[in-house]
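Final report, closing paragraph on structural work. Over the funding period we assembled a curated collection of sequence-structure pairs, and we close with a single example.
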Amino acid sequence: MYAVLIDAPEAEAARATAFWSAALGVTAEPFAPQPQFTTLHEALPGLVTAVQAVDDAPRIHLDFETDDVEAETARLLALGAERISQWQECQVLRVPGGHVVCVLPVETDPETFRAQANVWP
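Its predicted structure, as stored:
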């Protein structure tokens, strides 16, 4: 797993960011390349944690990082997920229980990814 995203409706994103930053005792910093994301630094050690402004309902979703988006998506679909959309290179899935996950290409540096990645048979 790569990230935990706190999705907040666009109109509430600033307030949600202020709340989560204070509640978790971490700093919040806008992510310049994609302004809908605000990073909550070190909120969950080892994972990217961010508030994402969305045009949708509030929720929390997880991001799975992989070097083969197609294969990881197929693996999760075989486990019972269903594909609901695509955003850029990411596949958006709904998993059993109703939660949303995204499968995205490698974002971390390659050496760290190789050292921490699960390898599936």
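Residues 106 and 112 are 10 Å apart (CA to CA). The chain has a mean pLDDT of 94. We thank the funder for supporting this effort.
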